[in-house]
Specification:
The complex is a heterotrimer of chains A (about 425), B (about 270) and C (about 450).
Chain A lengths: L4 H48 L4 E10 L2 H4 L7 H6 L2 H12 L5 H9 L5 H12 L7 E7 L2 H7 L16 H12 L3 E5 L2 H4 L12 H32 L4 H13 L4 H15 L7 H25 L3 H9 L4 H30 L2 H5 L20 H10 L4 H31 L4
Chain B lengths: L19 E12 L2 E12 L3 E5 L6 H8 L9 E9 L2 E2 L7 H7 E4 L10 H12 L5 H14 L3 H4 L12 H13 L5 E5 L7 H14 L4 E5 L3 H7 L2 E6 L2 E7 H6 L4 H7 L5
Parallel strand pairs in B: 3-8, 3-9, 6-7, 7-8
Antiparallel strand pairs in B: 1-2, 1-4, 4-5, 9-10
Helix pairs in contact in B: 3-4, 3-6, 4-6, 6-7
Chain C lengths: L2 H26 L13 H36 L4 H5 L2 H16 L9 H39 L6 H41 L2 H6 L3 E2 L14 E2 L2 H32 L2 H16 L2 H22 L9 H26 L2 H9 L4 H30 L2 H6 L17 H9 L8 H34 L2
Antiparallel strand pairs in C: 1-2
Classes of the chains: A mainly alpha (about 425), B alpha/beta (about 270), C mainly alpha (about 450).
Chain lengths: ~425, ~270, ~450
Amino acid sequence: MSNSVQQTQARVAASLRRRYRAERRFKLYGLLAVLLGVSFVLFLFGAIIAQGAAAFRQAQVTLDIQYNEDVLGLAGERTPEALATADYAALVREALRARFPDAQGREGGRAALRLVSNSAAHELQRRVEVDPSRIGTGERLTFLAGADVDQFLKGKIDRTLPEDQRPLSDQQIAWIDALREDGALRLAFNRGFFTNGDSREPEQAGVLGALAGSMYTLLVTLVLSFPIGVAAAAYLEEFAPRNRWTDLIEVNINNLAAVPSIVFGLLGLALFLNFFGLPRSAPLVGGLVLTLLTLPTIIITSRAAIRAVPPSIREAALGMGASNLQMVTDHVLPLAMPGILTGAIIGLARALGETAPLLMIGMVAFIVDVPRGFTDPSTVLPVQVFLWADSPERAFVERTSAAIIVLLLFLLIVNATAAVLRRRFERRW
Amino acid sequence: MDLSAPKNSRTIGDVTAPNPVFRAREVNVFYDQKRAIHDVSIDIARNEVLAMIGPSGCGKSTFLRCLNRMNDTIPAARVTGLIEMDGQDIYDKRQDVVQLRARVGMVFQKPNPFPKTIYENVAYGPRIHGLAADRAALDEIVQVSLQRAGLWDEVKDRLGHPGTSLSGGQQQRLCIARAIAVNPEVILMDEPCSALDPIATARIEDLIDELRASYAICVVTHSMQQAARVSQRTAYFHLGELIEVGLTDRIFTNPRHRLTEAYITGRFG
Amino acid sequence: MSASVLLLILMGLMVAGYLIGRLRSLAMVGGARGLRRLQSLPHYYGLYTALWCGLPALLVLVLWGAFQEPVLVQLAQRTAPVEVQEAGAVQMDLYMNDVRNVLSGSVAAAQASPGVAATAERYRQLHGAARLALTVLLLCLAIGGLLWARARIDPQRRARVAVENTFQYLLLACSMLAVFITLGIFLSVVYESVQFFRAVSPLEFLFGTNWSPQTAIRADQVGSSGSFGAVPLFLGTAMITGIAMLVAVPLGLFAAIYLAEYAGAKFRAWAKPMLEVLAGIPTVVYGFFAALTMGPALRNLGATIGLDVAAESALAAGLVMGIMIIPFISSLADDMITAVPQSLRDGAYALGATRSEAIRQVVLRAALPGIVGGVLLAISRAIGETMIVVMAAGLAAKMTANPFDAVTTVTVQIVTLLTGDQEFDGPKTLAAFALGLMLFLLTLALNVLALRVVRKYREQYE
């Protein structure tokens, strides 16, 4: 062997080119993998913002409404029943006909009416019922435009297509152009998106109902999972004897953290709805299911935070004559609290984005009203995204993206809180 | 730079040696702004064991890691001065670090066998450098290396077992075999026995003495007895400076610097 | 009284109990001067009284709340007409639905059948009686507990020990909850599955190749039993999981290697959180993306190169799911790679290994068990992932190995079987629970295996 030192060197030198090429290739693969992941993040956010931004503006149309008694079909009656059954859509139709004389006949009237959301009729009904003396007068009002008009203004409907391939006729497009010209039709901030519940009509649909549902659900989750999770973590770290029973609990918690969320939904359906008879679609039940789902996460992170408190603190407390419980409540828990809070917030963020288990307990129902309590039927933000994504109307696509933006913002706020907490209270031992 | 006579060296004793593999001149190592090694100049000769002794943190390991550029893996480390191997500056831009390390083997403080079989541990170096033409040649390299490391008889029946299944002393000899398998010219040893019991230590020391016939060996050690037993020359480091160099017998019987004397008589360490 | 008012009253009583216990203990030793004669601080005597006052009542309240509804329904059902009672569970459910409509006011009592009206009335009576009984019981328990604890206060009583023991038991109960959740999942899923397997043989379910539960609702038709061969679902799940893993494992692993071994501190500082953002995005967002962007894009791509790609292809769902799992694999692999001791890397470098040689042959080899564990966890996650496949994969069960075809998965079927209106006891809904059982057992097995592998790996380098 010793005579071959030169030989060895020659062989090493000969291998170098090939090996450095392999080295560069390997490094390139790694860089590509990272860049691919990062560019996907950017692409996803870019696509959603590009699609969703349009939904924050909404087409509105201003019309001169005449509260004409004959058009309403009231014939002098003012009883609540009569007011409730009057034909308010006709008021809108007549206002449009006054503006566009060519909107004649049933067909023409219907085509004109499609320009305005049917919420206009409800709005007029509300105004008349509040103040019946309006009948016989007139006023200028701004209504939501129809979803197709909205999409047209945002350039989502191509006017160069043949007439039978687009949802708006040539006549309707001509009207739209005319309305735009004199400023009666324009895009304005979409307040309704934040103040309305769900709706079958895309232009009226908003996220308030889902936001409120998410709030109620998260509140239930927070109130239940945080104390229980911290108590369980404190027990397992500070009191539990090391035996098979504790091992079992520990293995259990680790496994629960990885059980698919939909299985928790099955549990919620079988236990809370079918066995205990709790109401379907309620934030209370949603919160209970999400509590079960987040509990393992909270326990695991809380345990890690408690374990990070150095033993010297415990010894100091015990040395002062504190009992075990006093040591934990007076010293260990306060010191571990930043870590525990961070963990709890991360658990909540996960619960906030969770969809599948809530489908199982009926939070997927179509609900117009904004929930006012823990047992009102409601939905949550991610489920709202799911529902809208499923809707055939194309106007829902941008609303879905907008709802996702709201959801991501919500998540961003929650995670930022966690980051701030961690930075603020981080302690190095 | 004049290699024969370092001018401003404060080192006591003759830093040059006949038939040197390495010649280091005025080497400094910085970690960020902190200077870990001050103007160290020394030759390392073939067929000789050089022991580097000194109190903890004196820079002997840092200097050792300069010789195969292991300091490259630490981003903050910076080396100045000149280190030549067979007349070539190893910190030259054209010097390939892979090639350098193939010529300079290293054995670490804690045995660090790879999580592979005993066979694969030894075969790893020859494989990556393409030293064996075929399986038979590789088998031979493995066998010869294990024999020279004095491990063959103990492991020949279980070459397929994981390297980590061996005892600490055996693991360290496996690491020596692994280094030998690449056919290096120099073997650097960074406190090779500090994690071992006395019996395993004795075996490694015997092995070092045997290997001297084929390689230049440089051993960092904490134990003065070990330095006295295995080395021909000894270098004493203190706070990043090379204080004294000389033949081992002379250093231990007649140290010239008061720091050297204080250290070997056990006044600090 | 409503539950929240009762709860408030209980709280009030507990506060009163605390004050009473505290004052009483002090009074017994003659005020603050006699403090040293008390076994525990007055605070603990207060807590002692408050616990005795509140705990039994709260326990009863929770249990009562959980069981009131099923018991009341059972009792009210006895007033149903005999023919309904004998017609079986399905009829009874329909009947009780009518009753519920009357109770909620969505159907006027006058319009309902006399039987339904009577049952509703009965339920209403029972409900009122239960409310009253609960209120009385709770107040008795709370006040009784308070008085009893007050009577037991004396300076020799070790109130602190009693209080602390109680708290320890409460903590224990909280940690036991995890076990109860697992047990609850298992029992509820198994219970429904057993009912399902009474109607459909387990062999047919596990090995049958025809899945068409939809026919089962038309009870009057021939072949009304539907067919519940779940093999196509298992295959579909396996295919989508496989595609996801083909995307996630190499990308995640290479990203982890690059970040851990090559990237500079600056690059790492922004690239790593960016990747982790992927893990924080709700799955419904991925589903939306897969259904509206990835699916059509693949379809168009297929059309231009002459491939027939379904709009809801397994490929689209699998690709997006793979992207979702990248950060999961990369952060686990990153942990595992950084846990490999530096001495191993040094060993390889000292032999003259290049960086990639050291990584591929030494570092990855050492981290392998941990990475395998991480991949197992990722597989279990992909199998259980629901929203992406519900939104982007197909509904029809097909036996196919073509990734461009639409396939369906276990989770998709669970969701479709359980959303929408149908009676609860049909084999169709029960089938969802049988699928859930499979899902639970499979993911559980994967998790146990993965956690064991990972733990072993951690021990190796401690």
